[in-house]
Design goal:
two-stranded antiparallel sheet; five-stranded mixed β-sheet; elongated; 9 helices; alpha+beta; 422 residues; 9 strands
Length: 422
């Protein structure tokens, strides 16, 4: 099997050789015709000169030619290579090349042959160069692909090619390597985070059970309840990880139906009013109204349970990180997104006056197992994947979720505002 470089060399060489051969044949044919025309024209002119010279030797008085002069003229034309014989006014016989003309044609043909050989040699070198220019990046990409297949995701190939296709090839290989490298790093981090999240409740549960087995603690309802809480926490973590796995594989089947988004948000708010009141917080809803001042319905075609999960998560975080403040749920129609079924698009904002999220942590807030330092200090007990699940559910609905936040240290109205577009 020929390599790509050799195939390109053969292709370029054959192409250039055929082009040179075709050009040589065309030059030979056209040059031969032009030269034959030139010879014909010369013979015609010389023939006319002979006729005129002979006619000049005719004496009308004696009605005869000067024989001596005609013999001298004949000898001259013989030395010039001209045919000597019967003179005809109509034709003078077929033309032929003299020695100079024949030498010219021979030299022309030799020049064309030498030029063809020279161009063939040049074409081989040009073909090798062009083949190297094209084949080397492909060979580099193939080598990088083998390295990536072997697990060396840090491999990169130079991206300095002026040819667009080669530039796209090198960029695609580099992007693939970068994605796989990030995926491997993320997988290692995920394994570490899962181990960390599981270690704490398991250690606590193991310590409690061992203490009761050894008789250090009495198996009172309170201690058994504490063990049960850790088991529930582990169960919830495993369920969340399973949901997240389904969402990230894009295998989630949404149970969509028509319902009123306003009613869903009211229901979610009611579930947290008691918990919010215990921390001195108030929950307010600001829904758009009809012309009569009555809250209007917000029809939407979506998965009710999944969206409820999203807003429960947002409200849970808002209540958890807000003390003696307020939480506002705002719903408005928006023209930012269309709907193929003719339904309006909606904007939901969940805003609190809590501790806020530092600006440097906002880009990572939707990452798996990520919790800000303040949330860790407050011992929230969360696994740090609630917002990740929320973002995945919204993305599965074709929407988006963003956050703006100001911390108390930044001054002004601190708190976080999560904006959901559906």
């Amino acid at each position: 099997m020929l390599s790509l470089k050799n195939q390109l060399v053969l292709t370029y060489t054959l192409f250039i050789c055929l082009a040179v051969l075709t050009l040589s044949i065309m030059i030979n044919l056209i040059g031969g015709r032009l030269f034959s025309g030139y010879v014909r024209s010369n013979i015609k002119v010389q023939s006319e000169e002979i006729v005129n010279s002979v006619m000049d030797q005719y004496d009308p008085g004696s009605k005869s030619f000067d024989v001596i002069i005609l013999e001298a003229m004949g000898m001259y034309f013989v030395h010039q290579g001209m045919p000597v014989g019967q003179i005809s006014i109509d034709t003078y016989g077929p033309f032929f090349y003299n020695e100079g003309e024949s030498q010219f044609l021979t030299t022309l043909n030799q020049f064309l042959i030498a030029a063809g050989i020279l161009f063939t040699i040049i074409s081989i070198f040009i073909s090798i160069f062009l083949a190297s220019v094209i084949a080397m990046p492909i060979l580099s990409a193939a080598s990088a692909a083998r390295a990536i297949a072997g697990g060396r995701f840090s491999v990169r190939i130079p991206d300095r090619y002026s040819i667009r296709e080669l530039h796209e090839l090198s960029r695609s290989v580099n992007d693939l390597a970068a994605e796989l490298e990030n995926g491997e790093r993320w997988q290692k981090r995920l394994t570490s985070d899962i181990a960390h999240e599981l270690r704490t409740p398991l250690t606590c549960l193991q310590g409690n059970v061992e203490a009761m087995i050894d008789g250090v603690w009495e198996p009172t309802p309170e201690r058994l309840g504490s063990c049960h809480e850790e088991i529930v926490r582990l169960t919830k973590l495993v369920e969340d990880l399973n949901i997240l796995s389904i969402l990230e594989r894009e295998n989630l089947i949404l149970q969509k139906k028509d319902f009123d988004l306003t009613a869903l948000l009211k229901h979610a708010a009611e579930q947290f009013r008691q918990a919010a009141a215990e921390k001195g917080n108030s929950i307010k809803t600001e829904f758009f109204n009809t012309a009569d001042g009555i809250p209007a319905k917000a029809p939407i075609y979506a998965d009710y349970d999944r969206l409820m999960q999203v807003f429960i998560n947002l409200l849970s975080n808002a209540v958890k990180y807000t003390d003696h403040g307020s939480i506002t749920i705002r719903l408005n129609p928006t023209a930012q997104r269309g709907n193929k079924n003719g339904r309006p698009a909606w904007e939901v904002i969940v805003k609190d006056t809590g501790i806020g999220i530092p600006a440097e942590e906002l880009p990572r807030i939707f990452e798996r197992f990520y919790r800000s330092d303040k949330s860790r200090i407050r011992n929230s007990g969360g696994a740090g994947i609630g917002l990740t699940i929320a973002a995945a559910i919204i993305a599965a609905h074709g929407g988006s979720i963003t956050v703006n936040s100001i911390t108390a240290e930044d001054g002004g109205d601190h708190g976080s505002a999560f904006r959901v577009l559906l």
